[in-house]
Design brief:
alpha+beta, 21 helices, Penicillin-binding protein 2a (Domain 2), extended, Beta-lactamase, six-stranded mixed sheet, 19% strand, 38% helix
């Protein structure tokens, strides 16, 4: 008979054994887990303390050190001759305060004394140190451009000025002033918005950065690398007694520009105190030899304590002295545009260049009468060469509307670089406008009319360009269909390596036309004929050099009677290769009293360049002395 109790007892023993085994497994697993965990922690500690210990110790030292920036010397800027700098640095100092080092019961006394030494109001300092910052041990810049004698006074009374310190902070000194300001630009303290964008490029809260012109365009080359003085501080930022670690700053690179100071001053004086612009360009390389925009400003005012006030005054001036009219102002090209029209007519071969069109002084198109600038009875019968020389509007109206059309005209304008950025190395420039039927519809929701084609055929209407566009147009003629990118930088030099040239800017083709070379030769001859036998024969008369070019008078609204933009676009010597030629463009705005000054100024500039003469010498050689006293010359519209 089966003993059920024994069987049950056996089963219980088996279950008990299994439970013991499982329990032992769990204990063993838990023990292993603890050992592994402690092993990992031990390995991590070993890594932190032994393997990476030096790195973390250095990091802990860095965390407990305060670093004061040493401003570098900003690179100097020279003209193309690289002899005397146009922009240098003047030694100066900045005064800082560590508010936490000033006893609270003496705070107002210290601030009052410091304001007297610095020659500024106590309120000015109080605004820079609000109450929430009075316990801070971080330096706060109070004033820059502090002369050495003031620093000496502060040093002699330093016991009465706890928390006050100073450091070297060079000030930008623009040796060359006047019209070159638009090329050079100016510098200023970095703004919070600029810092947000440039922080990763090595800029700091007290950095000085270029704001306009070359100073801004090549700021990364000019700024150099700041040095530092590192000291150990306590948890509150107090400096402890130790030997500082000094890392010297690295000076910025020196820039050699394409500008020729002599020609810049010549062009500046030739334009005179007339609102407008002048530019001199080397057509075979794109080098800008002179760039003048009037009115201008003194960049040194931005290094003064009231720089913000000075900026506000300049920005609100109705004559816009901070506007670089060579690259940032747009004008109708007027009859200078007939250079492009002539190229299109010859290239398209839609109308023989020797075939004549009668100019009766006016033409009716639709329900409107268009009048040539000479009025009735007009120029008579003219071929292309004479139409360009006499700047006959009727001739180009007929060719533009009946033969070329808006699409061809716009296409050729774009071939010459109109309506496009010329990619000059300046931080801002306008593209201008080359209108088309599609452009007008998108912008105004209006259809293109025949009158619009009439207008663009003589450089009026919607077409807008800068003086640099017109200079590039003339450069393309010189080069028989090639435009080089205009540029202002010639070389970069390293002052730490005995001013060694580390970069040289090479000519860069911006656009190359497919127009037949024979067309360019005919256009060149026509432009020479325009000067020798055309509208500007008297103001452009020159016995020492052959000049080719085109005048222009732009009608503009809002200036009243007898006010037009006066253009002259020329190049010389006409009979020299492009490598030896200069393009000169002068624009006098309609805001000036009409005196048709642009061709006279252009001739003076060319005379001075070719014959190595000063402004006065050029004026006397051309027998223009009497013109300098005629500020209110009278005259009708001339082409």
């Amino acid at each position: 008979m089966i003993d059920h109790r024994r069987i049950n007892t056996a089963f219980e023993d088996v279950r008990h054994t299994d439970n013991s085994i499982r329990k032992n497994y769990k204990i063993a697993f838990l023990g292993l887990l603890i050992v592994v965990t402690f092993g990992l922690y031990a390995l991590r500690l070993f890594t932190l303390q032994i393997i990476n210990g030096d790195d973390y110790r250095k990091q802990s030292v860095r965390i407990s050190r305060t670093i004061t920036t040493i401003s570098p010397q900003r690179g100097e800027i020279f003209d193309r001759n690289a002899q005397l700098p146009m922009v240098i640095n003047t030694d100066s100092f900045a005064v800082d305060i560590r508010p936490g080092e000033i006893p609270s019961d003496h705070f107002d006394t210290v601030i009052t004394k410091l304001s007297e030494y610095l020659g500024i109001s106590k309120l000015t300092i109080d605004k820079k140190i609000p109450k929430k910052k009075r316990n801070s041990f971080s330096p706060i810049e109070i004033k820059t451009n502090v002369p050495f004698d003031v620093i000496s006074n502060i040093a002699e009374n330093l016991t009465d000025l706890p928390g006050v310190s100073w450091r070297n902070k060079p000030v930008r000194n623009y040796v060359e002033t006047g019209s070159i300001c638009h090329v050079l630009g100016y510098v200023g303290n970095i703004t919070s918005e600029e810092l947000n964008l440039m922080f990763n490029s090595g800029y700091e809260a007290n950095s000085v950065v270029g704001k306009t012109g070359i100073e801004r365009q090549y700021d990364s080359l000019l700024k150099g690398e700041p040095g530092s003085i590192s000291r150990t501080v306590d948890v509150h930022g107090r400096i402890l007694n130790d030997t500082p670690v000094v890392t010297p700053p690295k000076s910025g690179k020196n820039l050699i520009l394409t500008i020729d100071n002599r020609i810049q001053r010549l062009a500046e004086k030739a334009l005179g105190e007339r609102i407008g612009a002048a530019v001199v360009l080397k057509p075979a390389s794109g080098e800008v030899i002179a760039m003048v925009s009037y009115p201008y400003f003194d960049a040194n005012v931005f290094s003064t304590d009231d720089s913000s006030v000075q900026y506000a005054m300049l920005a609100s001036d109705k004559n816009k002295p901070m506007l670089n009219r060579v690259v940032n102002a747009e004008y109708p090209p007027a009859s200078t545009f007939k250079t492009i029209m002539s190229t299109a007519i010859l290239s398209e071969k839609l109308f023989p260049s020797d075939k004549k069109i009668e100019c009766p002084g006016r033409i009716t198109y639709g329900d409107r009468v268009f009048r040539c600038h000479v009025g009735v009875p007009g120029h008579g019968w003219l071929d292309l060469k004479n139409a360009l020389a006499q700047s006959c509007d009727v001739y180009f109206w007929v060719l533009g509307t009946d033969y070329l059309g808006v699409d061809r005209i716009s296409s050729y304008a774009q071939e010459f670089g109109f309506g496009q950025s010329l990619e000059i190395d300046l931080p801002a420039q306008t593209k201008g406008t080359v209108p088309t039927a599609q452009w007008k519809w998108r912008k105004y929701r209006e259809k293109w009319l025949g009158g619009d084609t009439m207008n663009i055929s003589i450089g009026q209407g919607y077409t807008l360009v800068t003086p640099l566009h017109v200079a590039n147009m003339m450069a393309m003629v010189c080069n028989s269909g090639k435009i080089y990118r205009p540029h202002l930088l010639k070389e970069v030099r390293d002052p730490s390596k005995n001013n060694e040239v580390i970069r040289e800017v090479k000519p860069e083709v911006l656009h190359e036309s497919t127009v037949d070379p024979e067309v360019w030769k005919e256009v060149q001859r026509a432009l020479r004929y325009t000067i020798s036998d055309g509208t500007a024969v008297y103001p452009m008369h020159n016995t020492t050099v052959q000049i080719a070019g085109k005048t222009g008078t732009a009608e503009v609204n809002g200036y009243g009677k007898d006010h037009w933009h006066s253009w002259m676009a020329a190049y010389a010597p006409y009979d020299a290769p492009p490598e030896d030629q200069y393009v000169v463009v002068v624009l006098v705005e309609a805001v000036n009293k009409w005196e048709w000054w642009a061709p006279y100024a252009t001739n003076i500039i060319i005379q001075g360049i070719i014959n190595d003469q000063t402004f006065d010498e050029s004026v006397d050689a051309l027998k223009f002395r009497y013109l300098l006293n005629q500020q209110n010359a009278q005259g009708g519209r001339r082409e």
